[in-house]
């Protein structure tokens, strides 16, 4: 798009990060690998010994024919062991993790979500098929007289079953075709509705021949499975009974199966409602979680300084100081600060450290902490509470005493009850030539801040250092404004351009948007499972209503006789409700048992709620019970309104 589809782009000279590059190839626009990228250049690793401290590379390799992941893992373990033996001071305890590329692209959370949603879709499919099976059973019972006539004229059981299976196959084919068309429309519209970051960049919502083939096979399988039982029951008609009673004598033998299917639907519905309730309570807990900061009306953006124009740390610091100064002059800006990354942004820079004065047996045993470079007003701008000590100031420069601020988790886990103020940490500082150990004095302790997301289940150590003492080539800018922060975007970009007109900014968001993005996946998962749970509830209600309505219709003569003998309308309502509650109660018991056994598999997806959450397991059956009661009342009232005279006259 930038070059207007130039067919002669190969060989053209462009500039990136201040350095000239020659375009040697063009790849498809939708190709991505591990990270969103528009431009690829050759990576030349440094060969000096200091580079052995930089353990951050991700390598993509293709296995030789016949080689397995186990072979590759064993070979890389030997290679890592040899490097550690040659350079124990930098590589002792470090290894290589070999994973399939698919796992790296999709990620564990997406795989778990896919497994959950796949199971949910399968359960809803079973419910829909159970409803269709119930309808086919009822239709077969109503056609008992027709089948009896066919048998009397020489029709065989096989011919009748073949006819019913053919009718079911046509019905399944029409439904499957309609489902595929709806799915294609949904997939086309889905990218506009999905929250950013929910799906990996490599995952494309594009159906192919494999998806269509799977849909066709699944349609055929469900048609066979749920059409066979109704066809079998309908074909085993009693000739004399059907001709004598119009088909009513066969109803009792099939009613048990229809009730079983309806109870199964209730069980599946209670299972899905319980799972959806747990996920919705997780989303509520995430919204109420303490992120460790207060940053309403805060605008953020990111800058990455090119090494060609900013080769030295001093150049980086000069740019950052100029940006702070220019942005602070904007009238609507109350505070401005810089940091290596933002809370909840998911970017964790892990650096090893040790407490000075405590002995360790090697670098491999040194703990790691999230390492963050910040300007002096970072905590004030983001509303992060300082619990002890002092914040950074303009006097914390490269020439002054090297200092740091730590969080509660580091004090609790690694200082063994010591007074943190004045304690010394040896920290691996960021450096273009590799991490370098620097001894820093702790001057403050801040409240715990969530780094990777609101769903962090463990408080991780964090170390903050003044940006003037370790200026890095990339940073996030946080601007607190008076009023809507998005109104200040143009002014902030103009301020940055006054410092460096060629410096672009990326990821322009408010901190409220950052927080929303951090829970986008669990929110989307809860909403999707909740939607399927509502669908399951509707299917279960239809199933109960269908069974009871059909039963009432078949028992019209019985109800008329009961009323003629003195039964009251409330007696008939109680009779129908009793049958309905028997189905509902059986299904609820089975569903709650299954939910208690299966919801533990959701533990890794939950936050602030246990798999056996009592609120969820009380609310789900209560809610479903109310819906079931309303569903059962309609056929029950219909039974109570039977006119004995009209019903018996019709018989």
Low-pLDDT regions: 246-254
Beta strands, count: 13
Shape category = elongated
Major β-sheet, in short? 6 strands, mixed, barrel
Distance between the termini: 77 Å
In short:
The protein is of the alpha+beta class. It has helices at residues 69-86, 88-91, 101-106, 108-142, 144-152, 157-189, 209-235, 239-245, 251-288, 313-328, 378-382, 408-414, 489-499, 511-518, 520-554, 556-564, 569-598, 614-640, 644-650; strands at 13-16, 19-22, 298-304, 333-339, 350-355, 368-374, 386-389, 403-407, 424-429, 436-446, 462-466, 474-481, 506-510. It folds into three domains: 13-93, no CATH class; 110-288 and 520-650, no CATH class; 306-502, no CATH class.
Your description of this structure?
Helices cover 51% and strands 12% of the residues. The protein is of the alpha+beta class. The strands form three sheets. A six-stranded mixed beta barrel has the order 5-6-11-8-10-9. The chain has a four-stranded antiparallel sheet with strand order 4-12-3-13. Strands 1-2 form a two-stranded antiparallel sheet. Helix 4 runs antiparallel to helix 9 (251-288) and helix 9 packs across helix 17 (569-598). The longest helix has 38 residues, at 251-288.
Keywords:
651 residues, alpha+beta, 3 domains, six-stranded mixed beta barrel, four-stranded antiparallel beta sheet, elongated
């Amino acid at each position: 798009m930038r070059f207007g589809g130039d067919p002669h782009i190969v060989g053209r000279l462009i500039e990136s990060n201040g350095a000239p590059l020659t375009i040697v190839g063009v790849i498809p626009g939708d190709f991505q690998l591990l990270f969103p990228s528009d431009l690829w250049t050759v990576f030349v690793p440094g060969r000096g010994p200091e580079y052995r401290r930089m353990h951050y590379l991700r390598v993509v390799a293709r296995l030789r024919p016949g080689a397995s992941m186990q072979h590759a893992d064993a070979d890389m373990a030997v290679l890592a062991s040899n490097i550690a033996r040659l350079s124990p001071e930098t590589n002792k305890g470090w290894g290589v993790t070999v994973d399939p590329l698919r796992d790296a692209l999709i990620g564990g959370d997406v795989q778990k979500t896919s497994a959950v949603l796949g199971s949910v879709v399968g359960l809803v499919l079973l419910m829909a098929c159970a409803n269709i099976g119930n309808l086919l059973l009822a239709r077969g019972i109503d056609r008992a007289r027709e089948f009896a006539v066919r048998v009397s004229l020489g029709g065989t059981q096989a011919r009748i079953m073949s006819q019913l299976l053919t009718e079911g196959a046509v019905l399944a084919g029409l439904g499957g075709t309609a489902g595929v068309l709806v799915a294609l429309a949904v997939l086309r519209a889905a990218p506009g509705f999905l929250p950013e970051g929910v799906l990996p960049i490599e995952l494309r919502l594009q159906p192919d021949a494999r998806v269509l083939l799977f849909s066709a096979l699944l349609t055929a399988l469900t048609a066979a499975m749920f059409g066979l039982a109704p066809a079998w029951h309908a074909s085993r008609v009693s000739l004399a009974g059907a001709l004598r009673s119009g088909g009513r004598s066969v109803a009792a033998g099939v009613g048990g199966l229809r009730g079983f299917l309806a109870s199964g639907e209730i069980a599946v519905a209670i299972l899905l409602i319980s799972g959806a309730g747990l996920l919705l309570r997780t989303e509520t807990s995430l919204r109420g979680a303490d992120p460790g900061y207060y940053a309403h009306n805060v605008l953020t953006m990111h800058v990455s300084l090119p090494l060609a124009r900013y080769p030295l740390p001093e150049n980086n610091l000069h740019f950052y100081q100029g940006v702070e100064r220019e942005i602070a002059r904007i009238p609507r800006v109350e505070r401005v600060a810089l940091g290596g990354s933002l809370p909840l942004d998911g970017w964790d820079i892990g650096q090893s450290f040790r407490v000075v004065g405590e002995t360790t047996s090697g670098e491999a045993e040194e703990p790691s902490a999230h390492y963050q470079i910040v300007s002096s007003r970072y905590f004030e701008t983001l509303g992060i509470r300082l619990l002890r000590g002092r914040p950074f100031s303009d006097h914390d420069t490269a020439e002054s005493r090297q200092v740091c601020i730590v969080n509660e988790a580091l004090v609790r886990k690694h200082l063994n009850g010591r007074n943190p103020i004045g304690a010394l940490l040896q920290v691996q500082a960021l450096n273009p030539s590799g991490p370098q150990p620097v001894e820093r004095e702790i001057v403050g302790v801040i409240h715990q801040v969530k780094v990777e997301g609101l769903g962090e289940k463990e408080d991780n150590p964090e170390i903050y250092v003044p940006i003037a003492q370790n200026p890095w080539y990339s940073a996030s800018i946080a601007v607190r404004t008076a009023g809507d922060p998005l109104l200040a975007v143009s002014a902030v970009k103009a301020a940055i351009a006054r410092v460096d007109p060629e410096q672009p900014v990326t990821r322009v968001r408010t901190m409220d948007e950052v927080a929303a993005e951090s829970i986008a996946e669990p929110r989307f998962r809860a909403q999707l499972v909740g939607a399927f749970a509502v669908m399951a509830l509707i299917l279960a209600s239809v199933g109960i209503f269908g069974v009871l309505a059909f039963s009432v219709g078949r028992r019209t003569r019985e109800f008329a006789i009961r009323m003629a003998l003195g039964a009251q309308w409330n007696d008939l309502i109680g009779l129908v409700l009793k049958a309905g509650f028997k189905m509902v109660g059986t299904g609820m018991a089975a569903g709650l048992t299954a939910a208690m056994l299966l919801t533990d598999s959701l533990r890794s997806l939950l936050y602030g709620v246990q798999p056996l959450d009592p609120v969820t397991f009380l609310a789900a059956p209560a809610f479903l019970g109310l819906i079931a009661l309303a569903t059962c009342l309609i056929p029950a009232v219909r039974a109570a309104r039977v006119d004995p005279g009209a019903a018996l006259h019709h018989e």
